[in-house]
Design goal:
The protein is of the alpha+beta class. It has helices at about 15-35, 45-55, 60-65, 85-90, 95-100, 135-155, 170-185, 190-200, 210-230, 240-255, 300-305, 320-330, 350-365, 375-385, 395-400, 430-435; strands at about 35-40, 45, 65-70, 75-80, 100-110, 125-130, 160-165, 275-280, 290-295, 310-315, 340-345, 370, 390-395, 405-410, 415, 415-420, 420-425. The longest helix has 20 residues, at about 15-35. The structure holds histidyl-adenosine monophosphate (HAM). Histidyl-adenosine monophosphate binds near residues 82, 114, 270 and 295. Histidyl-adenosine monophosphate binds near residues 120, 270 and 295.
Length: about 450
């Protein structure tokens, strides 16, 4: 048997790379438009960094970290997420002293030892932003707006924004006590994981995928809210400041015309959150339906040894965005992947002239290929189509005599319908100039 990639990891073949590059390009462009700058951190970090900041009782720390030992005593982990490394880098490079409020974005692989299933991988990729150094609710709204803007740009129109608040640490302590009291009578009916969550981190019960636990949790939250006479149904009892913050976020989102659902009960799987939390869900994704998630973490910078300062961010799963976009791809969408030029020759004797053109195109950074095997014109045209080229330039006897070249634009498709082909004759001297404007590879 030939060797295979590990379960929960995937190779990206060139067809998919085109879609990844387009997505990465959209992320970079929009992050810059919103004033965020890229920061790249290592894939490997000291284990203690995550143990302290993500929370000892979270699933990530308890069972999902890939731990690595060097030859000495140092324990390292493959990064399971991007927020903590970004804050580490922010503090390590003294950005809090030089720049104060900083808006950063990142993109790259993350690693979690989860049980692989559709949409859940052991090596997956996220892009995300972290706005560090402000407690303003306007920053929450900016971050959410950017998160949704990128998803729209990637072709997602059917996602739902779930919005909630977890209050400050004091609110969380008070609310945890209240939730435990409410869950106590049903405690024995919770799943094994939730029984231990009940003690260690009771909010995680709200996130359990087991139907019985979900029913018990929802009833507990309903009762808490009924007793408190409040809506929406978050189990958190908020102090005045946190309630005001949440109202301001919701009001600014409404002003911006951003629809959200604040009636869902959900908890985030990381302990650093305070106040605003959100998830973007996509119905096409089945059980792993969160495409993006984020929120405020106003205590993390301080807990990691920095000054007290507010921060908020999100991360989006790239594989899930692409899966969701594939679900939404409609008949109306124009095939966006045709790129580059294929130089076809009608006789093997013309390869030399074709090769000269290809070299000139490459020197201009234009995407161009040809066959050197003396294939028939028909076979070359088929190859150009299969390679997804936008143009085929045909060099034959008639063309060479007239110092011209025939330039054919291959049809874009709309669903299964072709959008028409065009063909024209271009003077040979003008060909490289003309074509190289159109056929830059996607990363340009
Ligand atoms: P998270 O909810 O753990 O949050 O992950 C964010 C997104 O990453 C998820 O919504 C999902 O799309 C994707 N994701 C997570 N795990 C997997 C997996 N095993 N396979 C495929 N995709 C996955 C965070 O990571 C926080 N750092 C977000 C954040 C940024 N909060 C504030 N700033």
């Amino acid at each position: 048997m030939v060797p295979q990639a590990l379960r929960g990891t995937t190779d990206l073949l060139s067809d998919e790379i085109t879609r990844w590059l387009a997505l990465e390009q959209a992320v970079r462009r929009l992050c810059v438009v919103y004033g965020y700058q890229e920061l790249r951190t290592p894939l490997i970090e000291d284990a203690s960094l995550f143990l302290r900041s993500i929370g000892q009782t979270t699933d990530i720390v308890q069972k999902e970290m890939f731990r690595v030992h060097d030859r000495g005593d140092q324990e390292m982990v493959l990064r399971p997420e991007g927020t903590v490394p970004m804050v580490r880098a922010y503090l390590e490079h003294n950005l809090h002293k030089t720049d104060g409020f900083v808006k950063l974005f990142y993109m790259g692989p993350m690693f979690r030892a989860e049980r692989p299933q559709a949409g859940r991988f052991r090596q997956f990729h996220q892009y995300g932003v972290e706005a560090i150094g402000s407690a303003s609710p306007w920053v929450d709204v900016e971050v959410i707006t950017l998160c949704l803007h990128i998803l729209r740009e990637c072709g997602l129109s059917q996602s739902t924004l779930w919005l909630s608040t977890m209050g400050c640490r004091e609110d969380q302590q008070r609310s945890a006590e209240r939730l435990r009291v409410q869950l106590q009578p049903d405690r024995m009916h919770l799943c094994k994981d939730c029984q231990s969550r009940f003690e260690k981190n009771v909010f995680r019960v709200l996130d359990c995928k087991q139907k019985t636990c979900q029913k018990i949790a929802q009833e507990a939250v309903r009762q808490i809210n009924q007793d408190a006479g409040k809506a929406p149904p978050t189990p958190f009892s908020l102090c005045d400041e946190c309630a005001k913050h949440f109202d301001e976020v919701r009001s600014a989102l409404r002003d911006s015309g951003i629809a959200f659902d604040d009636t869902q009960v959900f908890a985030r799987g990381l302990d650093y959150y305070t106040r605003t939390v959100f998830e973007v869900r996509h119905a096409g994704l089945g059980s792993q339906d969160a495409v993006a998630a984020g929120g405020r973490y106003d205590r993390l910078v301080e807990e990691m040894g920095g000054p007290p300062m507010g921060a908020v961010g999100f991360a989006t799963g790239i594989e899930r965005v692409l899966l969701a976009a594939a679900c939404e791809q409609t008949q109306g969408e124009v095939n966006p992947t045709r790129r580059g030029v294929y130089v076809a020759v009608t006789e093997a004797g013309f390869i030399r002239e074709g090769f000269r053109l290809i070299q000139q195109l490459h020197n201009r950074g234009a995407q161009a290929i040809m066959s050197y095997d003396g294939k028939s014109l028909r076979a070359q045209l088929r190859e150009a189509d299969q390679a997804g080229c936008q143009f085929v330039a045909i060099l034959g006897e008639r063309e060479l005599k007239g110092r011209t070249i025939s330039l054919r634009e291959l049809a874009a498709r709309c669903g299964s319908r072709e959008l028409g082909k065009s063909e024209r004759t271009v003077p040979l001297e003008a060909f490289v100039d003309e074509v190289s404007q159109h056929v830059k590879p996607p990363c340009h």
